[in-house]
Amino acid sequence: MLVVMQAQATEDQVRAVCQKIESLGYRAHSMPGAQRTAIGITGNKSEVESGTLEEMPGVQEVIRVTKPYKLVSRDTKPDNTIIKFPAAHANGSPVTIGGPALAIVAGPCAIENRDQAFAVAERVHRAGAQFFRGGAYKPRTSPYSFQGLGEEGLRIMADIRQQFGMKIITEAIDHESLDLVEEYADMIQIGARNMQNFSLLKRAGRARKPVLLKRGMSATLEEFLMAAEYIMSEGNYNVALCERGVRTFADHTRNTLDLSVVPAVQRLSHLPILVDPSHGTGKRNKVTPLSRAAVAVGADGLMVEVHNQPDQAMSDGPQSLFPDQFDTLMEQVRQIAAVVGRTVPAIGVSEPVAASK
Amino acid sequence: MLVVMQAQATEDQVRAVCQKIESLGYRAHSMPGAQRTAIGITGNKSEVESGTLEEMPGVQEVIRVTKPYKLVSRDTKPDNTIIKFPAAHANGSPVTIGGPALAIVAGPCAIENRDQAFAVAERVHRAGAQFFRGGAYKPRTSPYSFQGLGEEGLRIMADIRQQFGMKIITEAIDHESLDLVEEYADMIQIGARNMQNFSLLKRAGRARKPVLLKRGMSATLEEFLMAAEYIMSEGNYNVALCERGVRTFADHTRNTLDLSVVPAVQRLSHLPILVDPSHGTGKRNKVTPLSRAAVAVGADGLMVEVHNQPDQAMSDGPQSLFPDQFDTLMEQVRQIAAVVGRTVPAIGVSEPVAASK
Amino acid sequence: MLVVMQAQATEDQVRAVCQKIESLGYRAHSMPGAQRTAIGITGNKSEVESGTLEEMPGVQEVIRVTKPYKLVSRDTKPDNTIIKFPAAHANGSPVTIGGPALAIVAGPCAIENRDQAFAVAERVHRAGAQFFRGGAYKPRTSPYSFQGLGEEGLRIMADIRQQFGMKIITEAIDHESLDLVEEYADMIQIGARNMQNFSLLKRAGRARKPVLLKRGMSATLEEFLMAAEYIMSEGNYNVALCERGVRTFADHTRNTLDLSVVPAVQRLSHLPILVDPSHGTGKRNKVTPLSRAAVAVGADGLMVEVHNQPDQAMSDGPQSLFPDQFDTLMEQVRQIAAVVGRTVPAIGVSEPVAASK
Amino acid sequence: MLVVMQAQATEDQVRAVCQKIESLGYRAHSMPGAQRTAIGITGNKSEVESGTLEEMPGVQEVIRVTKPYKLVSRDTKPDNTIIKFPAAHANGSPVTIGGPALAIVAGPCAIENRDQAFAVAERVHRAGAQFFRGGAYKPRTSPYSFQGLGEEGLRIMADIRQQFGMKIITEAIDHESLDLVEEYADMIQIGARNMQNFSLLKRAGRARKPVLLKRGMSATLEEFLMAAEYIMSEGNYNVALCERGVRTFADHTRNTLDLSVVPAVQRLSHLPILVDPSHGTGKRNKVTPLSRAAVAVGADGLMVEVHNQPDQAMSDGPQSLFPDQFDTLMEQVRQIAAVVGRTVPAIGVSEPVAASK
């Protein structure tokens, strides 16, 4: 904390602020300057409420200095976190998020039925995705929109894992659905709208599965990291972040994809960060260019919506790629990845994993 | 829905779009213009996914026209909703939100202990507040910050109602706390961070108590109304809205209080809307001016944080008023209310309600 | 300036930063804390470029402390600035901006022709406006839109001053138009789009007429004050500010009117500040409620668009009030003003000033 | 234009709106729907002022449909614009913006003196930049900051062109400086703060040199294109756009670089678009990752700040690259360019161009 005094503050006022600080159990460091005095505060274990000081006579401003996050910070853990998922079968290899291989997560916005889900899964698996995404519980803006298949959707995704060996990532929207997602899926997604649903974050922190945390619509970097801190503070250290666009005045895309948050996160935290250009742009024709950009900026992976029949999708059709477009995306992304020293999984063999048992 | 064709779109392309529309079960209305053709779509019960059409050859843009909210709309219910709370005791009078009397909600950010809560309650009651606010479950950005007293806090507030006759409004942050809030309080608050926690909204929609819904940090008016629609769609029609500042680039206040949303809500919806200038500004010295402005713009009430010792508050101290400041605020607000044809409760008698039994 | 070191920074790194600071001619104040060390910098006449220090080993962050504005600051001049305009005629009284009387500025968006201008002027004068606004040079988003009458518009406004005794405020968009505005008008308006047109600000700073400076679409409070500082640094101390809405994600109004900037400006600066609810909302039906709110929050005046035939206006018709609506606005505003200790000019006599000569 | 009627609008109200439209000289197309009626308007050469209709009884909303830009639009000119600059000397080759070769613009924020400018120029030339940037007229937030060398700076840049054969791009801030920039430089830059300085845009439109137009801090895509339209409407068709970050709530970078605007511009307009990651992030350590991303997303070039001694720069030091960092950037960018089918100029020969004469 730093207290900046007004230019005309008297010595008595400076002294009073110092005494107040000391009375609260901290140390005050007075720094008289050419124009005004500033007072540094140290020794604060917990945060000093700035209001106490801000309203004292002669005080211009109180500036917070120390960052409130601990477990997410590189100060605490300098090495990158790599989340490991066991191999799907005996002769398979484990997959990771945060390692040299980019994590490619693909699938439809929502699981609509078994046929649709398998059709998409078959294609994204073949194109090289190691993770399958699909919503069983959908947080929709309207109560009258399709809300997801629930547990039936989770069962379909479990069968997709069985069939193709892909890891399953799906969203939980409350404690009840989180129980089920924890049971069926490989990674629990917390959506943008729930980034500050602290009750849900704590529950995710007690889960035995890794968590994918999406950035809230208007979350600052600090709030984003603090949400991860909530999960980690309950004991779950396997957390990956995901940038999915923020809300701004700009209206040519659904959200404004903030790619600069990727190097910013990597500087402050050891957690991996993915990018979701589907929600980040909301427009099919912008998903591939922004996917290239996300890999070029240094993201640890991509999360992309793919649908076999986007024009009949029950949600987010306009931003879902056709499978052929996803093939092209993977090809371009693979080349960009090589430039930044990352790899993208080779094109999968279409032979189903289940058959190898 | 309206499909705008490109200037150079061919007649075949226009025809193809019309056929697609009709094949989806809607009616297409072609409107050839000087520069380009637009095609109106009618008959859509559910929403057409715009992506289907947006990607067709010759299409420039697809514009959504119909509003998705129903129950919250003035189209559905032209008269203002007035939420009624029964009188606290036999010779008391009922209080309302949405009627000619402004609803004044005041109290500390968090219930910290019985003494603090009663000290604040005594003062805000005496100044005229009909509603007492206080957090028992606090959604804090940091997991290491004070998270509220939980049920003990609810019990303290129930005793405050008993003592002073004020109605209790307090926040629920998940299903579990909502069960308890529904039991102890008079009105259930859904906080800004949970405005799109649809699972919680649905649960609130099944509650037997009225709901105060705060606007999310970056919620558009439509999203705000749709969140209320979620609650109403489950059968709970007693919903009041609350503007509490939105997130913008501006850094001189904690949030940017958007007072224009008050007349905007009143034009589109029959639901009452309060204003919270404490969170809306985050600075004590701006709470009173913005409270005056909120009443002047036509809000149905105010929600204000008051603390007997703000500099020792466990949360949001810098934005909490001293009780004396709240007295001044009430006096000023009362005069402004008169200008806009509203009333503010007279200064309460300090004689406790409990004694009258 | 304050340099915050990383938690694991070595003593050598701290020493190196201190030496660097001293080598740049400043004093370094090292403050070792429980978790990390912070280093205060004092003695900086000019601003230290933070980049120098930010990239040094062990440095976490560099925080700027001193505010860059001087002449606009209350530190420099504690008393409110009151801009005085001489009385229009012998038995008239002078008008002011920043004094106890609210400054009411009204008129059409653009001067379209003599009849329209006089028709509006007659009505707003009668309703009590002391200032007449009207654009002769219009900064329009499209080059194909009406760009204003130029000098002919200025001449019409000069005749309106002659006829009704109102002071004329009109916008200058470049050096050439500023020369003419300075000649014809009583106050030079710098529009939102030119708030950081520093060449124009300097020219306005050399003008012999007061300046009304509108806030830029996305200007922070500091940038807004620095723009005023540009004008004052050239010697023109008669500057009034004007909040006119900022750009946010919110789409229910054209801009988001930020009324909290009024008390924020008044705390930091001695300059008066008006509010323009016409541009601030962009919607006729929100101008009156937000005008009431602006006066209630403590603004020094209002700037309102009025048109005798808004539906035939050549620009900004949708946000222009009908003259009858302006009468109502003035009546409501007059009552609110009384509550906050301000006055609003009595309803003007329709007898033309010119006749009294 | 489309007029959406309220659900309960009467047939008479619909008829009145249609008659109003026809009376204004347009055609009305009534489209009765299941819930409400919409009315299409065609034949509008100039834009209908929406306010006229918005306030009529029964009207819910008026939606603008046609886009106001013409010359910048791909509708008008389907092929990409390629701006050509003549070769610097007899055996040199011409350089372009918008062609297959990426345009690399590099140099210091401001020209501080001859030595600094030549030192930077020598390095960026050797690394492959075809364009040299440097400010002679600096739009600084504070009037007390370094404002640029003026014409002396232009002369230094002209000598750099002579010496190294690079094209010169520099900013004009008013008519006077534009006259000089037009004389000395190869391309006239209009800065973000002047993007809606329409008087300056018109002057640039009459210049004989190409114009680089930077996006304003909070400019929508439409406003950005309309600013280019201003220049083109005066006859100068050689316009390149430049994304340089927009203002949002996010505080981890100086601005939020909006890379999605690149494909958005390319879809709507034939004009080339560069990206400036230096202003776009404001932080040296983010310039290289975001440069890679900009090329990956499909930008037509980069504009990067490089300084030989960033820690002594007179402006924007913290975001300027060291020359060695620029070398690395160019190497990485060259590889990414290859993936998206673009080329980056080979590393320049250090032999001065002047010597070849």
Explain how this protein is built:
The structure is a homotetramer of 357-residue chains. The first copy, chain A, is of the alpha/beta class and 357 residues long. Chain A has two domains: 2-63, Phospho-2-dehydro-3-deoxyheptonate aldolase, domain 1 (Alpha-Beta Plaits), CATH 3.30.70; 83-339, Aldolase class I (TIM Barrel), CATH 3.20.20. Helix content of chain A is 34%, strand content 17%. Chain A is built from eleven helices and 14 strands. An eight-stranded parallel beta sheet of chain A has the order 13-12-11-10-9-8-7-14. In chain A, helix 7 (221-233) links the parallel strand 11 (211-214) and strand 12 (239-243). The longest helix of chain A has 17 residues, at 323-339. Chain A is elongated. Chains in contact: A-B, A-C, A-D, B-C, B-D, C-D.
Give a short synopsis of this structure.
The structure is a homotetramer of 357-residue chains. Chain A has 357 residues and is α/β, with parallel strands linked by helices.
Topology:
Four copies of one chain form a homotetramer.
Chain A lengths: L1 E4 L5 H13 L3 E6 L4 E6 L7 H5 L4 E5 L19 E3 L9 E3 L5 E5 L6 H14 L3 E3 L17 H14 L2 E5 L3 H10 L2 E4 L7 H8 L5 E4 L6 H13 L5 E5 L17 H8 L4 E3 L1 H5 L2 H14 L3 E5 L17 H17 L18
Parallel strand pairs in A: 7-8, 7-14, 8-9, 9-10, 10-11, 11-12, 12-13
Antiparallel strand pairs in A: 1-3, 1-4, 2-3, 5-6
Helix pairs in contact in A: 3-4, 3-11, 4-5, 6-7, 10-11
